[in-house]
Amino acid sequence: MTHMAAGALFRDQPAERPARWRLAALKRVPLVPLGIITLMVLTALLANVLTPYSPINISLPDRLRPPFWEAGGSLAHPLGTDPMGRDLLTRLIYGTRISLLVGCLGLIVGGGLGAALGLIAGYAGGRVDALVMRVTDTALSFPIILFAILLVVVLGASILTVVCAVALVLWARFARVIRGEALSIRERDFVALARIAGSSPLRIILVHLFPNVFNTLLVLLSLQVGWVIIVEASLSFLGAGVPPPTPTWGSMIAEGRDYIASAWWVSFFPGLAILATVLAFNLFGDWLRDALDPTLRQM
Amino acid sequence: MQRYILRRLVQSVLALLALSMLVFLMSRLTGDPTMLMLPDDASQEDIAKLRHALGLDAPLPVQYWVFLSNAVQGDFGRSIKGQMPVIDMIAERLPHSIKLGAVALCIAVLLAFPLGVIAALKKGTTLDTMANIVAVLGQSLPQFWVGIVLIQIFAVHLRWLPVAGVGSGWHYVLPAFTLGWFVVAGMMRLLRSSMLDILGSEFVKLARIKGVPEGLVVWKHALRNAMIPVLTFGAIYLTILVTGAILVETVFAWPGIGQLIYQGIVFRDFPVVQAVVLLTAGLVISVNLLVDILYAYLDPRIRYG
Amino acid sequence: MQAEAYRGHPRRDLGKLHQRLAWRGALALVIGVVGALCWTPPGMAAEPAVKLTGDLRLAMAGIGNMRPAPWLETAFGKGYMVLLYDFLVGGKSDGTPSTENGAAERWEMSADAKTWTFWLRKGIRFHDGSELTAEDAKWSLEMVLKPESVAAFAARLRDVIQDIQVTDPHTLVIRTKNPAIFLAQDLSMVTGSEGAILPKRYYEQVGVDGFTAKAIGSGPYKWVKGTAGSLIQLEATEKHWAEGVPQFKTVTYRVVPEESTRIAMIQTGEADIVGISRERVPELQARGFKVFVKDQGSVMGCYFHQQWEDVPIAKKQVREALNLAINREELIKFIFAGQARPMAMYPIGSFAVAAGGDASLKPYAYDPERAKQLLKEAGYPNGFETTIYSYPREDVPEMPRMVEAIAGYAAKIGVKMQIFATEYGVARTRRMTAKMPGHVSCLGTPNRSQAGDLLALIFNLHHSSSKFTDHKVPALDQLIERATTATQLGDVQKTIGDLHRWLYADHATMPIAEVSTPYVADGKKVTQWDLGRTLYDNNDRDLVRRR
Predict the structure, then answer these.
(1) Contacts of B16 in chain A (CB under 8 A)
(2) Which of A7, B253, C51, C335 yields a CA-CA distance of 20 to 30 A from C401?
(3) Looking at domain B86-267, does it have CATH number 3.50.50.60?
(4) Same domain, yes or no, for C493 and C532?
(5) Does residue C105 sit in the same domain as residue C243?
(6) Domains in chain C, number
(7) Is residue C450 included in any domain, yes or no?
(8) Which pLDDT value is given to residue A296?
(9) C20, part of any domain
(10) What is the DSSP letter of A85?
């Protein structure tokens, strides 16, 4: 509601349909963020090929070896080892897989659900809209992390639980924004024409509304990836994340925090990975928003 | 207008009611607190007696009714683990959370404003990107990690600031910064976009044609108007900061309500979980309601949306 | 016309209004922020940040419930209660009862061990000036025995105690249902907090909430304030009848959940004593801090759950195989930073030798080849799958790593242990409702030196009637009952030795190690501290003793 209001107050011209890639934005394609994202995706896909070590087999005598440029380090473990003796670079590589997996699954489920509800609420209006909005209000007023812990306590910690927790919070955010967009589009002539022509609401939503909110959806998705990765790290810190021995960047940082003064590399490199990836997704999402639909700038 | 307010009020109350039912059920799903309280060798009888003393053996609807009827009178029951009235526990901790949230918001505003203005004025240049990166950085690092690293740098190595707990004003700096940095990006983006919108609007074009100096245009006219959505969002951000500070509270041993509800969940302390969730939800919903009413007042279109 | 105006130029008509609103909003926000900063609710004054001379500040991961009464507090909260209260029976640092520093100056057990008489000292005063009498002792104990009481040994005492009588203001008579030769021990300062004596009249006057807001006891320190879950502050009394004048003016216990923060606090001088995990000891020692250690203070072991079910670990060979698969030396070296010793059978550690433990039993060897052989003989040539529980425990920060290591060792002999990460509540509930057939979970407990405590623990863990047991073996039950019904300490000690050997031969559990508990302290402030062999506390009275 408030997003819509903010936009309404300051919009000088209505959103264009269909949304076009703005030429100016295309000239400023953010190559570095895109590069990082591509690198991460490739790493996730090719993990087995990239490293000979296993990410989960422990080897206590090798624990806490420093990176190769420090005294005591070697090229056998270029970034050092973790407290259980596992190669840090290997765990980082496999961690990419899990972190991106959790992110994608959470976004698909949460975003999909949220977008669907938002579209329905935006199109239907009236009572349905009010109901959906109040439910999302309620969902958003619940502190996120605590909701996740509640889920973990009930279901036990696992990748599935983390994905559920993420999805259950995301849907409300998506629903809100998409509903706002749907509301503004529904008043347009082509939608009215479709209604007069007798199209069913489902058809109108799928054929007319959805393509117009698609850009918003894309922008939201790319902006929330970073958030999901950060939330996964926070859950690991509180003991509610993906359980060991599965490597995730979040659990690696959480694990390494006890060694910040003595074995800094254990949490530094996963921290760097998170930073680079989330920053890349955020900057990419910013550019995407500028390119596709500048009226969303207040998101 | 009144009809709108009434409608929203009723909806908010219903939402709170639904939430109360939800949190009631969910917290009971987490398990049985008596299992955690009594020692290992407690007999079946002991457990039954304790459950009865705590009112946990009554049928669920009865328990819910007891909870609700007491809650509207301000009595949220007694903490199962802490063995004291929940409202007292909250009263001990809520002020600390509010104070921390308020300072965090101030810090966020102090960071977001210059960044947002610079980004708007120098749109498209490197400065814009740089400002964006600084803001987004706060959302690209896990809060607990930022806190731990800041402690190492500013408290342990430089000895400029205290490590943890409450005490003097200096105790606020690190936790409030850690907490506030997270919302800087959102605020900055909001300010930037509304500044851009105003700077491109007819109102500003008119002022420029009239010959008003550029500085006045930017700082007096544009910024003032651009601040409105940011300020209203400020209230919403405050609620987020107050209710979502568990990570910062853990790292800095800050006695806030985040830790309270976390302990409540872990120990299946239903009264605590119910009370804190309801209170924070009530806070958030009321703030949202107020903001929406404000906007409806300013723009009649929304009332019928 | 109006609508046109809105759509095209919303700002033109409302511009001034917006401005006014914006400034009012800004003013409101600023006022709100300043107000919030200045507002302190009554009774919640800012805590002092400056270092008081003679102020001892401890930072721990957890301090129990922080509700200062034995029936409200868990075992982990005993530390500060030892400073607040006197106990019915006193105790020495080595874990034996004492007539020197308890309310009872002597006690006597009847010949049939079913009647105990305690003669209390005269002249002990509570912090409000009233005298401590047998009435207070009786009332305190009865409160502990109530069904709502969460004291650690309440159930055990309920089974033992029949009634409590006051024959004169300073004489207490307790009758037990069965012969109870360990009653004095159970009610002493060295075991749990059940023996603490609280003031009946004051408590009934102010009620439970009034009491927990301002507790009154007769110990060397009195209550100043407390915030549940975060802080307890105590202040020294002028002079205690047994401890004399304490060393520190105030003692502050603070809950700081995050270990790196605790370490930062001692480095900057914000705390004088912190609890840390064993791994961090060498680096802090190198920086010049003093480390006080409760040597072998805890014992760690893992359980094989529900051995009466049709599960792999029901077979002794399988349990033996798993015991042989664990490289305890390596685990101790890397997970516990060498600050532990392998033990022969959990929970009977080196402290228990005086109580009858068999010192000749050697820890199991590390022999993965033989382990694989045993598995094959038991009918599992390709190993099997089971679950191991991992949960954080504030007293054992290494728990998750230990569990990972154990799962790693098991994997090497073909036993795939799926790590179920949860928190203690879930694991404990499952255990008490017998939902862990064939699973493994790990726990630690204080190293017990007194026969009575040890026997009670063994009963809980191994007798078929206990909800925590993994065994339903009549021979084991009989052995345990032989000890619980004995009327002579010598018989109890002998039976404990037999139990020790029985469990060892049976591979009843997976013992890991006896682990030392380190505390890092500011050497200038804390020069001497004997952590002793008492249960669930760190001999806090010795910590604050004037030297």
Answers:
(1) 138
(2) B253
(3) no
(4) no
(5) yes
(6) 2
(7) yes
(8) 55
(9) no
(10) S
Please report the ipTM that was assigned to this predicted complex.
0.86
Domain containing C329 equals: 295-517
Chain C positions in Cβ-Cβ contact with residue B225 (cut-off 8 Å): 11, 15, 18-19, 22
What type of residue sits at position B124? G
B244: tokens are: 């979502």
Contact C390 A244 (CB under 8 A): yes
Chosen from B34, B41, B265 to mutate, greatest number of chain C CBs within 10 A: B41
The CA distance from C515 to C351, in Å, is 12
Structure tokens at A267: 């949490």
If 0-12 CB within 10 Å is exposed, 13-18 middle and 19+ buried, where does residue B216 land? Answer: exposed
DSSP state of B220: I
Which residues are CB-neighbours of B226 under 8 A, at least 6 positions away? B120, B191, B194, B195, B197, B198
How many CB pairs lie under 8 A apart between chains A and B?
180
Q: Determine whether the interchain pair A278/B229 forms a contact, defined as Cβ–Cβ distance below 8 Å.
A: no
Q: Distance between CA C446 and CA B106 in Å, rounded?
A: 48
How far is Cα C296 from Cα C60, in angstroms, rounded to an integer?
Answer: 19
Alpha-carbon gap, residue B102 to A98, rounded angstroms: 36
Structural domain includes residue C425 = yes
> Are C311 and C253 contained in the same domain?
no
Mutation choice for C interface testing from A60, A234, A252 by most C CBs within 10 A: A60
Cβ-Cβ contacts under 8 Å, B183 against chain A: none
Side chain identity, residue C464:
S
B192: which chain A residues are within 8 Å (Cβ-Cβ)? 297
Q: Are residues C307 and C201 in the same domain?
A: no
- Other CB atoms within a 10 A radius of the CB of residue C104 amount to 29
Q: Give the closest residue to C71 by CA, choosing from C146, C132, C137.
A: C146
Q: CA–CA separation, B172 vs B103, rounded Å?
A: 7
Which residue from B11, B247, B277 is facing A134, i.e. has the nearest CB? B11
Chain C residues in contact with B88 by the CB 8 A cut-off are 209
d(CA A109, CA A132): 18
CB contacts, 8 Å: B14 with chain A: 134
Q: Which residue has the tokens 């723009």?
A: B299
Q: Do C253 and C224 sit in the same domain of this protein?
A: yes
Pair (C493, C535) in one structural domain: no
Asked if residue C180 and residue C325 are part of one domain, the reply reads no
Longest CA pairwise span in chain B (Å): 87
Which tokens hold the place of C367?
């022999």
List chain B residues with pLDDT less than 50: 305
Side chain identity at B295, as an amino acid letter? Y
CB B108 within 8 A of CB B184: yes
In tens digits, chain A (299 residues) has pLDDT values of 344 444 444 333 333 344 455 555 566 778 888 888 898 898 888 888 888 888 888 888 888 888 988 888 888 888 999 888 899 999 999 999 988 898 889 999 999 999 988 888 888 878 888 888 878 877 777 777 777 777 877 787 888 888 988 888 788 888 888 887 787 777 777 777 888 888 787 887 787 778 778 877 887 888 888 888 888 888 888 878 888 888 999 889 988 888 887 888 998 999 899 989 988 888 888 788 777 765 554 44
Confirm whether C125 is domain-assigned.
Answer: yes
Q: Do C195 and C339 share a domain, yes or no?
A: no
Q: Are A185 and A191 in contact (CB under 8 A)?
A: yes
- Domain boundaries of chain B, sorted by first residue: 86-267
Helices (H) and strands (E) in chain A, counts: 13, 0
Closest CA of chain B from C467, distance in Å: 7
The CATH number of whichever domain residue C411 belongs to comes to: 3.10.105.10
Cα of C546 to nearest chain A Cα, Å: 35
CB contact under 8 A, A5 and B190: no
B305 in contact with chain A, both atoms CB, cutoff 8 A: yes
